[in-house]
Amino acid sequence: MASLEQLHEMLAFVLEKEARISKRRSLVVAAHFASLDEFALFDPSRYEFRSVSGIQFLTLRRGEAEALRELQHSGLVNPALSVQENYVAALARDFTRRQIESIKSMTLDRLSPNPFLIRSLMLVTPRELVALNVYMLATRSIVTSMGYLVEKLLQSSSDTVSKPPKGTGWDLVKVKDGRRHWIQSKSGPNDMDKDQVIYWASKIQEKVGEGDFGYIGVTYGKRTTPSISIGLMRQYLPKWQMRTLIGRELWDFIGDDPDYHNKLFAALHTAAQQVLGTNTFGAEIEGGIGRITEEFVRRYGDGPAGVQRYVDEIF
Question: What value does the mean pLDDT take over residues 57-73?
């Protein structure tokens, strides 16, 4: 069962991201609930938050009360699910929503196409020019945001996982069967060089010497993946098979469930549907390309001549 701290963290996140209540006020509101059922049943229209001494210090504003009521009826906080399951879904919705907002906020000036790239790749129409640069900018945003999402998913997938104290260098610590398991997580199977593998081999050995366990955790891939990093682990990490968690091994270990990786993917898919509805992310990108192409044509004209005018202006 999740701790009150984990419950409050999840509720505060949902209140901020879904109900659009400020972060400070979300933290105050979330701290007053002891369960998901209690949150689902409270009446926002009369709700006042008081200190232990009974002094009133926060009353929901009308807009906040309405947003909370909508949140309760939306099913986005589901008492039938665990705190961890609700948190994973909320994190995924926030990720998808931010990628859509990033595309909708793109403009030609924000894309800042590179004239050398335009000529080197023979981009001769406005759509070709815009499409490449929209994909490039969207990819940068997605990669950055995905790193944060994966880190939070790992921390939120079990009530026995926590963030180690600062300065330790480890990303996660999980308590299992009364023993501590320290994990250094890597985003993919190509994220470590020889020096890093050797360094973490020594850090893992330190934890083993203290009576704990230590691992390098890779968030996707397999042991058979032909990657340089996995090859280096085989070579420079003693007992590498016992001291690595790769792909589904990592997620199933974190989630205490041999099928957790499938449940996680299903939750991510459902969360994306809740944000996108009947639309698709590909359609969002195509919409952005069409909109910015129209902007380009209005400013510089169509065809190769429009591209030439653009290059002449920026270079």
Answer: 86
CA–CA distance, 219 with 166 (Å, rounded to integer): 22
Q: Provide the b/e sequence for 167-183 (b: ≥16 CB within 10 Å).
A: eeebbbbbeeeeeebbb
Ranges of each domain in the chain: 4-80, 86-157+278-314, 161-255
Return the CATH number of 161-255, one of 3.40.1560.10, 2.60.120.260, 3.40.5.10, 2.170.150.20.
Answer: 3.40.1560.10
Beta bridge partners of 174: 161, 181
What is the C-alpha separation between 77 and 271, in angstroms, rounded?
12
Contact 260, 157 (CB under 8 A): yes
Distance CA 137, CA 223 (A): 32
Q: Encode 36-47: b = buried (16+ Cβ within 10 Å), e = exposed.
A: beebbeeebeee
Strand segments (E) across the chain = 48-50, 56-59, 161-162, 172-176, 179-186, 213-218, 244-246
The one-character DSSP state at 286 is: H
Strands 179-186 and 172-176: antiparallel
pLDDT digits (tens, 9 = 90+) for 28-47: 889 889 999 999 998 887 66
What mean pLDDT is predicted for residues 103-130?
95
